[in-house]
Design goal:
It is a single chain. With 344 residues, the protein is an alpha/beta fold. It has 2 domains: 152 residues, Alpha-Beta Complex (Quinone Oxidoreductase, Chain A, domain 1); 158 residues, NAD(P)-binding Rossmann-like Domain (Rossmann fold). It has 11 helices and 15 strands. The strands form 3 sheets. Strands 3, 4, 5, 6, 7, 14 and 15 form a 7-stranded mixed beta sheet that branches. The chain has a 6-stranded parallel beta sheet with strand order 10-9-8-11-12-13, with helices on both faces. Strands 1-2 form a two-stranded antiparallel ribbon. Helix 3 packs across helix 4 and helix 3 packs across helix 10.
Length: 344
């Protein structure tokens, strides 16, 4: 069957709430030299997409833009210099925008074969979430089996990915989430679930560790949460920051919330870090798209985990492409457990 002349895609025409997302027709993209085209079967939604739509994500593309960084599907066309054997292969890819569409053109070196026993929605939930978790825990966090990990927002896509990786390493895990998610998280292997909405949640974490503290914290929330996390670090502990969900508000209120949070952000003075033997680092995979060798190496390790059975991507819900606004609203309401997927 030949490809159509046009496709449908979801566009952010202006900053605002979920209702601003628009489903539009667009010309069918053509792969250039070194590129291939994927007929998209599933596209992952990340919280960064929501912050981009709201206008509070640093370094985001200005509207209009098509969000979406991780996809799975079947290669239907290749450009010059690309092995024609790619045509017809089921793949997954980590790209830079454009995933909320029926077709997506991407550099061939950003694409990897999809494991045969992994469904397309699950495959679309792998690239960004698991690479982020791998970077936080293994590459930068140096997590070991004799250590304790605190996962903030344990029920999100990165949180569940981190839980898989931590269990593989053998580390003890503590996760924060609303009470309705605790049973599911414990069934996935989380050792201790904590309600972050309780004012004394950090004291509960301290009690769990017998006041020793935790060795690694991964936190997508923002300055207020980072400041609380510093007090929970053990001697030699590390805080990994990878988001700013506290700023999630559309329009001016979101920008003011972000500014207020940054003004109140903890000051990581070298003398304090040295005295406490503590480390602080940030993680943003979006800033590493040119480091293809490293990204593909980490993703390759994750795909090996799929083959070995310890990587278990969990799809919360699938929405049709036309219901992207409903999908965003679902995530903003903190209703998801794991990955939310668009099906073009």
């Amino acid at each position: 069957m030949s490809a159509p002349d046009s496709m449908r895609q979801v566009v952010i025409p202006r900053h605002g709430g979920p209702e601003v997302l628009q489903l539009e027709d667009a010309p069918l993209p053509q792969p250039g030299p070194g590129q291939l085209r994927i007929a998209v079967s599933a596209a992952g939604i990340n919280f960064a997409d929501i912050l981009i739509r709201q206008g509070v994500y640093p370094d985001a593309r200005p509207p209009p833009c098509v969000p979406g960084h991780e996809i799975s599907g079947v290669v239907d066309e290749v450009g010059d210099g690309v092995d024609p054997m790619w045509k017809g292969r089921a793949v997954l890819a980590l790209g830079d925008y454009g995933g909320y569409a029926q077709y997506h053109v991407i550099d061939a070196d950003r694409v990897l074969p999809k494991p045969a026993d992994l469904e397309f929605p699950a495959a679309a939930g792998l690239p960004l979430n698991y690479v982020t978790a791998w970077l936080l825990l293994i590459v930068m966090g140096s997590l070991r089996g004799d250590q304790t990990l605190l996962i903030q927002n344990a029920g999100g896509g990165v949180g569940l990915a981190a839980l898989d990786i931590a269990r593989h390493v053998g580390a003890r895990t503590i996760g924060t989430a609303s009470p309705g998610k605790h049973e599911f998280l414990l069934s996935r292997g989380l050792d201790h679930a904590v309600d972050y909405r309780q004012t004394g949640w950090h004291k509960e974490v301290a009690t769990i560790t017998r006041n020793r503290g935790v060795d690694l914290i991964i936190d997508p929330m923002g300055p207020k949460s980072w400041k609380q996390g510093l007090s929970l670090l053990a001697n030699g502990g590390r805080l990994g920051m990878f988001g700013i969900a506290e700023a999630a508000r559309p329009g001016l209120s979101g920008k003011l919330r972000l500014l207020k949070g940054m003004i109140g952000a903890p000051v990581f003075h070298p003398s304090g870090l040295i005295r406490g033997n503590r480390g602080v680092f940030g993680c943003n995979v979006h800033q590493m798209y040119e480091s293809r060798t490293r990204l593909n190496g980490w993703l390759g390790a994750i795909l090996q985990g799929v083959a070995e059975g310890w990587v278990r991507p969990h799809t919360d819900r699938c929405f049709p492409l036309a219901e992207a606004a409903e999908a965003h609203a679902w995530i903003e309401a903190r209703k998801n457990l794991g990955k939310v997927i668009l099906i073009p």
